[in-house]
Amino acid sequence: MLKRKFYNKLLDWKKKANKKPLFVRGARQIGKTYIIDYFGKTNYSSYIYINFLENSEYKRIFDGALNAATIYSRMSLMIQSARFTENDTLIFLDEIQECGNARTALKFLAQDARYDIVVSGSLLGVQYKNVKSIPVGYEEPVTMHSLDFEEFLWAKGYSQEQISALQESFLEQRKVDDLINDVMHKELREYMVIGGMPAVVQQFIEKRNFAEADEIQRQIVSDYLDDIMNYASDVEKPKIRNCFLSIPRQLARENENRKFKYAEVEKGVGARKFINSVEWLRDASMAEMAHNLTAPLFPLSAYEDESAFKLYLSDIGLLSSLYGFETKAAIINQTIRGSVKGALYENLIATGLVRRGYALRYLQDRRIPMEVEFLLEKDGKVVPLEVKASNASTASLNRLLEREDIEFGYKFTSGNVGVAGKKITLPHYMMMFI
Hints:
This protein is α/β, with parallel strands linked by helices. It folds into two domains: 6-143, Rossmann fold; 149-433, no CATH class. Helices cover 44% and strands 17% of the residues. The chain is built from 16 helices and 14 strands. It has a five-stranded parallel sheet with strand order 2-3-4-1-5, sandwiched between helices. Strands 10-11-12-14-13 form a five-stranded mixed sheet. A four-stranded mixed sheet has the order 7-6-8-9. β8 (361-365) and β9 (370-372) form a beta hairpin. α10 (237-251) crosses α12 (271-283) and α13 (316-323) crosses α14. The longest helix has 22 residues, at 210-231. It is globular and about 65 Å long.
């Protein structure tokens, strides 16, 4: 079993005195069902699993009256093995997007509060055409992602003590032993190729076969495209598909201006035609969005330019797979060059930041000119973060650090830890500590 950080979030939720039903969002095939199923079987005396996609008959439980007593009565009739123990039963409603009434019923199940409820499914937030009433205020939303780099290291057999030793170097801004630094960069290159989809990681850990891992990734991408065909409206299907498939080439522009351009999806069109498609990809957790800023000022949300943004794939391994198997070999062998290399490292850091809970924002102003890949908020301050695929200069970051209201900034490189004035240089793998 792959060790997942999300398991601790489930444990923390269970301890809450007046908990709401937990609404687990996230892309398909990231391990939501597996970890919630394990959590239910391990931590409750009674566990009831309902999958609306696997057994459509379960939808009948939520036909008609939606009060808690009626629902639990129907549940006991349809699932003969179901046992209800107050304060010690977990009911897991999986693939809930297939049953709109079940989502509506969460309000009444929350008010009843005798049993713990977790709901999940693919493309949550996208396919709710048949929901009569969204239970606002009666569910606790939480997002799950594919494995981050630290979880990948756990899967590879690294101990928490080893990772904590690296974190000490980060906190103390102290150089990492050269041998250890080289090993960590090597592990990160593997992570860039394998990514964090559980099935891919599990295969690679067991067989160490890059080709077989790539086959699984290609199947996942195919499944994502199938989801678009199955869940999107007829008019949106081709637009969403084309937007998704355009992301790798939009990130790899030669001039490093990686702003998402609708004209790259289809010549001569603009936001009006494709904005819904972009939002669909975000809601499906297939892509992450970073907005440009009009100024590097706190709070950053007040200075977002909604019309200018970048899109990143939600898993770095899937992006590597879309660039092709030879690109993966070049990553591992450190022979990759050009704009694709920069795109991969920028996407790597972007998804790492999302997993750490940060909103993605960047600063790009052609008038100055200035481009900084990410700006974060930390302790009420703005922290710029520039990403270099190798160890190039950082003119834009240097200019930002001249401002009195910016105390420090990060430069991520293929090198080691270092400090020069207000600029802290970090190896790429230390994104897991930001």
